[in-house]
Amino acid sequence: MRTVTYGAACSLDGFIARPDGSVDWLIFTADVSAVMTAFWKDTDTMLMGRKTWDFAAAQTKGGGTGFGKIETYVFSRTLTADPHPDVRLVREDAGAFVRALKARPGKGICVMSGGNFAASLFAAGVIDEVRLNVHPVLLGAGIPLFTDPGTQVNLTLTECRPMKRDCLLLSYRVAPPKTRRRRGQATEH
Amino acid sequence: MRTVTYGAACSLDGFIARPDGSVDWLIFTADVSAVMTAFWKDTDTMLMGRKTWDFAAAQTKGGGTGFGKIETYVFSRTLTADPHPDVRLVREDAGAFVRALKARPGKGICVMSGGNFAASLFAAGVIDEVRLNVHPVLLGAGIPLFTDPGTQVNLTLTECRPMKRDCLLLSYRVAPPKTRRRRGQATEH
Fold it and tell me: What pLDDT, on a 0 to 100 scale, did the predictor assign at position B66?
């Protein structure tokens, strides 16, 4: 079964971008680059929500450079066609789609997203890992890393690595949804 | 000058309690207890917002056991008198009050708070340290650890220590408010 990783660089107060989408606060260092290079070597598929796609497309002026190298899916109920020759639109249920994708042979699957799309995948129970590059800053406001999946998600800390310039790489494994659910919620059987 | 520490146990998605205030998800281990004991030995003053006071008072059924051992201040514009014989009400500007307190001789000062009161102290530039015990869970919703102080707060990572049961102690030093302000905001002179 392939591993689905929700990965992001974030502020300590849990934002992946400022309110206007800007990421001028991101710190790029050689040690993080090495980690990312290793990560992408083991990843062949990328999932994104429509808003993240819009942002990525704007960044590359719609050219989508590099999308051909990695299987890319954009999840949207408002788009009606593939937004780019190298990018597939998915309109069906995200959880079911990702579950089927995981069962197919392949490398790791990466979720590039703000909190909303990630929350829908947490709710569907298809995310296996959370990998964060926590930056030493409180932004105060912005696009959230996490939004409410409607259920408690238990984790296991698998890595904690201080990087240059006060960044911190954290990796968590998502625990199977079993023992603890949010109060007042039915337990899954 | 005394050190003001904003300290909390929190979920990875930045909550200090569930929406109803409950903290049944907190993990108590001997290694964290040892860290807390050392911390309280160097701390003689506690600051809290009114909501945190209400919660603490309810927990101790108004008895306030232990408040006599530590100088305790509750900040509120709605309270009109000290809420407990061992607890002082502060109605004046929190930033100015804490600045004066820091200049007096004494040990460390601890901020026990949800994000709102802490944000007012971040905005006033009187918090020196952030110390978190990050728990391996996404709660999805609850009382936030951080709310928007209206300005960017830059930090320096001073400690990162994995604890038992996948908890993670993080300590940050607050950088002086100088170089980077949020976009569109005036720079302080």
Answer: 60
- CA–CA gap between residue A157 and residue B164 (Å, rounded): 10
Instruction: Identify the CA nearest to A50 among candidates A13, A88, A96.
Output: A88
Tokens 């904003």, located at residue: B6
What is the span of the domain harbouring residue B116? 1-14+29-138
Q: Taken in order B148, B152, B153, B155, is the CA torsion positive or negative? A: positive
Q: Is the pLDDT of residue A7 over 80?
A: yes
Residue B143 lies in a domain: no
Which domain CATH number covers A111?
A: 3.40.430.10
Is residue B162 in some structural domain? no
Question: Is pLDDT at B189 greater than 80 in this prediction?
Answer: no
Listed in sequence order, the DSSP H helices in B28-183 are 30-41, 50-59, 94-103, 115-123
Does B12 contact A130 at a Cβ distance shorter than 8 Å? yes
**ipTM computed for the complex:** 0.91
- The residue of B11, B27, B157 whose CB has the most chain A CBs within 10 angstroms, and thus the best one to mutate to test that interface, is B157
- Of A12, A139, A154, Cβ closest to residue B137: A154
Q: Do A183 and B157 touch (CB under 8 A)?
A: no
- Residue B82 has which token pair? 């000290």
Q: Is residue B48 part of a domain?
A: yes
